[in-house]
Amino acid sequence: MFYRLAGVHHTRYETARALWPIPADRKQVIVAGLIALVAPFFLSTLYLGSYMLPWLIWSSAALSLTLLMGMAGQLHFGFASVMAIGAYTSIHLARLGIPFELALIGAGAMSAVIGTVFGAAALRVKGLYLVIATLAMQYLVDWVIINVPAISGGAQATLRTPEVSFLLFPIESLTSRYYLALGWAALLAVFLMNVKRTSFGRALTAIRDKDFAAAVIGVDPFRYKLMAFFTSSFMGGVTGAMLAFCFYRAVTPEQFSFNVSIQLVAMVLVGGLGSVIGGFLGAAFVLLIPIVLTNFVAGLAASGWLAISSNLLAHVPLMIYGALIIGFLLLEPLGLAKIYDNTRKYFLVWPFRHSRS
User: Fold this and answer.
1) Residue 354: inside a domain
2) The domain containing residue 2 runs over which residues?
3) For the domain that residue 345 is a member of, what is the CATH number?
4) For residue 218, which of 208, 200, 203, 198 has the smallest C-alpha distance?
5) Are 75 and 134 in contact (CB under 8 A)?
6) What is the pLDDT along the chain (357 residues), one digit of tens a residue?
7) Is the peptide bond before 351 cis (omega within 30 degrees of 0)?
8) Burial letters for 159-193: b for 16+ Cβ neighbours within 10 Å, e otherwise?
């Protein structure tokens, strides 16, 4: 079998601390990277622009929230507002003639500052009270965007993104926007995998498990929670700018509503809390499974295999989708990433049994 620990001796700290110490893992990453790089050459514009591009961007959003929810254990039900701040900030900065690279940094900085302000106020509470505090941020930001014409142009206004370039390459074609989103998603994935191995990541893990115990051993919970809010909000703000410039090409207040925050939380939970690959799997599940189910049910109805009314036909995919989410939470609460890990362990020790812990 190709999945073996043969040749991995852990005789040096450098190899023991590698991101992918097992050769099969490195090969999988290389193959996935090559497929992502050549995707624009063999995928149609429909699949590239309607499936791959939004999947990469929303995976980046899920990874940004994973740092806060999965690693630090802080609930956030207003993350769509963080992305909205980044999207509107980047558009206004780009319209002022600021280079797009600096506009992205400015978008992340604005989201990080505002997100940290709300985070500082919310960190005095926990659990459901923290959820309510982040909901207050969502609704407050929504109200400001809608009622301040200088930001959005009005409740019904659409703010178009200007023409920009990234590192002297114009971001106008679908291929260029895809590669920009791919680069940002890869950067976030590598960043989060490395964060887990740093003192910052270990401190967040200790706070997530038990903040009182973390304080006893010298970890300042308030400081590290603020750092988690700042870092997560910065990444979310840049992702919101990516969403505006690479996918929507124009933004409205409805694109960052409370429903989007709920979808982001679902991506993190279904994918697996604290898992990098779970961010990608959760985004794929939330974005693509409803489309697949809708096409599947519509195909059954068109072929005569499913005789239901048109009204019920519109709700059946949502019912199946909800049942799938409940099934995952019941059968595997640790998400899709745990299913992948169990499969990986099966091949790692085959033909012997693997641990299900």
Assistant:
1) no
2) 1-30
3) 1.10.3470
4) 203
5) yes
6) 566 666 677 777 777 677 787 778 888 889 999 999 999 999 999 899 989 999 999 999 999 999 999 888 888 899 999 999 999 999 999 999 999 999 999 999 999 999 888 877 767 777 777 888 888 889 999 899 988 888 887 777 788 999 899 988 888 899 999 999 999 999 999 999 999 888 898 999 898 888 888 888 888 888 898 999 999 999 999 999 999 999 999 898 888 988 899 889 989 988 888 889 999 999 998 888 888 877 777 777 777 776 666 666 667 777 777 787 787 778 878 888 888 888 887 777 776 665 555
7) yes
8) bebeebebeeeebeeeebbbbbbbebbeebbeebe
199-209 and 221-242 helices cross at what angle (nearest 10)? 110
Give the span between the Cα atoms of 231 and 214, in whole angstroms: 20
In sequence order, the 6+-apart residues with CB closer than 8 A to the CB of 70 are: 268, 272, 273, 274, 275, 278
Rounded to 10 degrees, what is the CA torsion of 282, 286, 287, 292?
110
Same domain, 152 and 24: no
**In this structure, what token pair is assigned to residue 344?**
């990986």
Contact criterion met (CB below 8 Å) for 354 and 345: yes
Pair (102, 189) in one structural domain: yes
Closest by Cα among 234, 289, 251 to 68: 234
- Distance of alpha carbon 253 from the chain centroid: 20
pTM: 0.89
Relative to beta strand 159-160, strand 250-251 is antiparallel
Question: CA neighbours within 13 Å on the CB side: how many for 317?
Answer: 20
Which two structure tokens, joined as six digits, stand for 317? 């995919």
Q: The tokens 């690279």 sit on which residue? A: 101
Residues 137 and 17 in one domain: no
